Structures are given as C-alpha cells and as structure tokens.
Amino acid sequence: MPEDDRVPKALPAGDNQDIKQYVEQVIEIVSSWPGVTTGDGRFNSTTFSLGQREIGHVHPHQLGLVDISYPQPLREQLLVEGHTEKHHVVPNRATTFAIESEDDIKQAVFLLRLSYLHHASMLEQTSDIEEQVENIDLDVEAEIRQLKLSDELRAVLTQIINSE
C-alpha cells in the first residue's frame, strides 16, 4: 500500500515521545474548555469541536501538527504576524502549527483558543450556542481581550465577528 504523501512522516521514536507528551498537554487543556468535545479524526488526529463546529485538530504521531481553519482574513493576518504556517495539505484554506518543543504548547493553545472564540461568537450570534453546547457560560469579548492580540489582529477578528 503506497504511503500518502500528504501525511507527514512520524519522527524517530525518542523525539516522537516528547512531542506526543506535548500534544497530550494541548489536548488536556483544550478539552477542558466549556463546551469542547474531542473525537477521532482523519490521519490519527484528535479533533476539537464546539457543538457541531470543528475548532481544529492535532496529529500526535505526525510531528505534533495542529491544523486549524480560520476565516480567510484572520488566517492571512495570523500568517503575516508569524503565528502559524500555511496548511501542509490545503495551504489556501487552513493553517498548520508544528509542536516541536515544550515552548510550542502555549502557541498551539493560543491558536486553538482563537478559533474556539471565533466559533463561540458565531454560535452566540445565531443563538445556537445553548442548543448546540450545554453548560457554556462564556464572555467572548472579555476572552478576546485576554488574548492580548496585536491591534491589526484584533481589528480583523472584530470585523469578522461583527459581520457574521
């Protein structure tokens, strides 16, 4: 059976164990957020969802890749500011961030939190948040302020939230 060239290769066993531990920390943090559920995804990934919306997924055995789709303007600003990279398979639609060290855990969580807050704001605006997500009490605007975004990134996110 030929290998899929789109799937990143696994690291040697020693390096892979460290990355796997870092990924497990990310999974533990993100899955503790109100309303977030996890599931098994493609290519041995763990998906994070808020209601029926996927906020991102992580591949623990393939370089610790965190893949997230954002609205195009938000994606572009994140790329410009160097927060993440173009997705390794669909570079025009999503982003990929590689967890390579313990220091990368914070950035992976930041990127997933940004996606989480974007999706939570969309659900709030459509009044679907209570229907799709139980036991969530979230002040999206306050949470966004806590992220300490650049002025440009905050402006893009605010424009997206206000236009949805």
Shape: globular
What's the arrangement of strands in the largest beta sheet?
1-2-3-4-6-5
What CATH architecture label applies? Alpha-Beta Complex
- Residue-averaged pLDDT: 83
For the record, the count of structural domains works out to 1
Topology as H/E string? Answer: HEEEEHEEHHHH
Give an account of the 3D structure.
With 164 residues, the protein is α+β, with helices and mostly antiparallel strands. It has one domain (13-163): Aspartate Aminotransferase, domain 1. The chain contains six helices and six strands, in the order H-E-E-E-E-H-E-E-H-H-H-H. A six-stranded antiparallel β-sheet has the order 1-2-3-4-6-5, covered by helices on one side. Helix 1 runs parallel beside helix 3 and helix 2 packs antiparallel against helix 6 (151-163). The radius of gyration is 16 Å and the shape is globular. The protein starts with 12 loop residues before the first helix and ends with a helix. Pfam families: Luciferase. Residues 53-115 form the Luciferase domain. It comes from Haladaptatus pallidirubidus.
